[in-house]
Amino acid sequence: MTPMERLQAALNGLGLKAVEARIEGLLEQASKKQPSYADFLDELLSCEVDARRSRYLRARLQLAHLPFVKNFDQFDFGFQPSIDERQIRELRSLRFIHEASNVVFLGPPGVGKTHLSVALAEAAIQSGFGAYFMTAHDLVTDLGRAYREGRLDRRMRVYLAPKVLIIDEMGYLPLDEMGATIFFQLVSARYERGSIILTSNKSYGDWGSIFGDPIIATAILDRLLHHSTTINIRGESYRLKDRRKAGLFPRAEEDDRTAPFPSSPTLQNGPRRQGSTSSRKTGAPLPAAGRSADSP
């Protein structure tokens, strides 16, 4: 066996796949540049470190369940002038994750709420934080099924584990009483422990209709907004811009879609209650949660 064959066998045995694949090229390059032993070893190991980090990030991105991969460089801020880029730069620092605070993107469909959420999630993953993406409807459906099957505690931990939980499309479909209570429990469990990035096409004043109860909606908003940043996007749909240019949408419809979203958490369909009152109504766990077969 030649020295090169022994070297490749040793690298394979140690699991240094990236170095094994590049060793011949690295040795040839070293014979020309004649680096110091330390420099050569540094380049050799950096090759493996970079390859492992790349595999790690790919795995984290897959586990995050992102609907697509988007970054901030791909976002057209010029098309959405209502967005304060300074706020976005602050969010990109990921300080909100260290502080376990939340980010809420409000606005009509197509203005880039999900794109920005995914870009933040990708930035978080690149920095070593765990992230998980789910639409509000699928999340509540999943937890509701777990509750009925007596494994709510175990399934809830899936949504409590990542440092960043992205909840997309809140408000597109209303929640029933059980769904609203489960969502309240999730937000309460993550409160000051992990960050939530949430997108919604409904202003805070309309959240009473989402949950079917302004009291539980207020309780959720109290916890969600206590430490949070709200990005209110008042632009038109990026997906429909070409159709609008072609005159396929009348001006009246366009005006509706670009109407401002009020950021006040005052709820419609009922007076705002104090957090203590809403906690008495919703703070207790679901009846079967404490008796779940999956309870720790």
What does this 3D model show about the protein?
The chain contains 14 helices and five strands. The protein is of the alpha/beta class. It folds into two domains: 3-61, no CATH class; 64-291, P-loop containing nucleotide triphosphate hydrolases (Rossmann fold), CATH 3.40.50.300. Helix 9 links the parallel strand 3 and strand 4 (195-200). The model is unreliable at 251-260, 270-284 and 287-296 (pLDDT under 50).
Radius of gyration: 25 Å
Distance between the termini: 55 Å
CATH homologous superfamily of the largest domain - what is it?
Answer: P-loop containing nucleotide triphosphate hydrolases
CATH class assignment of the largest domain? Alpha Beta
Structural class designation? alpha/beta
Q: How many helices does DSSP assign? A: 14
The strand line-up of the biggest sheet is 2-3-4-1-5
Low-confidence regions: 251-260, 270-284, 287-296
- Beta-strand level of the residues, as a percent range? 5-15%
Q: Any idea what the CATH architecture of the largest domain is?
A: 3-Layer(aba) Sandwich
**What is the arithmetic mean of pLDDT?**
85
The coarse overall form would be elongated
Q: SSE order in H/E notation? A: HHHHHEHEHHEHEHHEHHH
Could you tell me the CATH topology label of the largest domain: Rossmann fold
